[in-house]
Every structure is written in C-alpha cells, then in structure tokens.
Amino acid sequence: MAFPFITCKTVIKFCLLFLILISFLLSLSHGDEAANKQKPIDVPLKIGVPGRTSFQKFVKVDYSGNLDNSKFGGWCIDVFKEVLTKLPYSLLYEFIPLNGTYEDLVDCVYNKTFDAVVGDLTILANRTKYVEFTQPYAESGLVVVVPAQPEDQHGYS
C-alpha cells in the first residue's frame, strides 16, 4: 500500500475537503457576478507552498531547475490539482515556495502576499484568528502524552 496512513476516516475527510475546496474556488471567480462580467480574472492566484517540510510525501519542492508549477509535488499538491480539474472553468495559479516557518505562511495569507496556501499546515487555535482553514483531510497519527493529574510541587502525583 503506497499510503498506509490513509484510513476510511481520512477518505471521508478528504471528500469533505474536496467539496469545501471546490466551494472556495467557485467563490473566488463567481463571488461577485457583476464584477466578474466587467473584469475577467486573468491574474493567477498566488499559492504559497512550504519550501521545506518534514514529510516530503505531502509537499515537495524541487529546486533543481526553474521554479515553475511542474517542480512542485506531493499528495497535497496532487489534491489541489485534482480539485482544479473538477471545476467548470479554468483557474490560473502559480505555486510560490516559502522557506520560512508555517507561521510565516499564515502571515503571508493574512497580509495578502499569498491568496492561499497548499501544504501540510496544522490547524491551530492562534492561526484561526488570522486565516480560515478547510476541514482537515489527513491525520498524522502524532499525539502528545501528558500526565492525567498535575504533579505537586515536590514532583509526586
């Protein structure tokens, strides 16, 4: 199996993401019908992509040549491109790698440097104050283990 982390729950989340992403992309071009009739969308969306990731199966940037769309790969990129094929219109976009932190990616969407981000970005409470997220579509399986009861001042439970 190529992706052992994909479970039935992950597939359901993926389907939800797929629907939400299509809704988002439709709203970008059809949000204001009058404005769209007057001015066609000919400027590509700037899609930020993490330039360095821990899990290159999700997002990978190939820096060996010219940074065009063919140099970006991974599961998240494949999902994005597949969603675009389902739209009833074409949507121009360009991937732009950012070799910063994930917080930097969020900041770039917030300050409108990027129109969106595609990648293995974790939804955190502080990030939701600045940008909106799709529903999660993958589970990492990573957890944090903490004591069920706090220790007293001497280190005993």
CATH topology name of the domain at 40-129: D-Maltodextrin-Binding Protein, domain 2
Distance between the termini: 44 Å
Architecture of the domain at 40-129, CATH level 2?
A: 3-Layer(aba) Sandwich
Oligomer: single chain
Q: Give the tally of β-strands.
A: 5
CATH homologous superfamily identity of the domain at 40-129 = Periplasmic binding protein-like II
Order of helices and strands: HHEEEHEHE
Mean pLDDT: 74
Strand order of the largest sheet: 4-1-5
**Beta-strand percent range:** 5-15%
Low-confidence stretches: 29-39
Characterization of this structure:
This protein is of the alpha/beta class. It has a domain at 40-129: Periplasmic binding protein-like II (D-Maltodextrin-Binding Protein, domain 2). The protein is 31% helix and 11% strand. It has four helices and five strands; from the N terminus they run ααβββαβαβ. The strands form two sheets. Strands 4-1-5 form a three-stranded parallel β-sheet, with helices on one face. A two-stranded antiparallel ribbon has the order 2-3. Helix 1 crosses helix 3 (75-85). The longest helix is centred in the first third of the chain and has 23 residues, at 8-30. The radius of gyration is 19 Å and the shape is elongated. The model is unreliable at 29-39 (pLDDT under 50).
What is the topological layout?
Layout: H1 8-30, H2 33-38, E1 45-50, E2 60-61, E3 72-73, H3 75-85, E4 93-98, H4 102-110, E5 116-117
Parallel strand pairs: 1-4, 1-5
Antiparallel strand pairs: 2-3
Helix pairs in contact: 1-3
Task: List the defining traits of the structure above.
single chain; 157 residues; alpha/beta; D-Maltodextrin-Binding Protein, domain 2; three-stranded parallel sheet; 4 helices; 5 strands
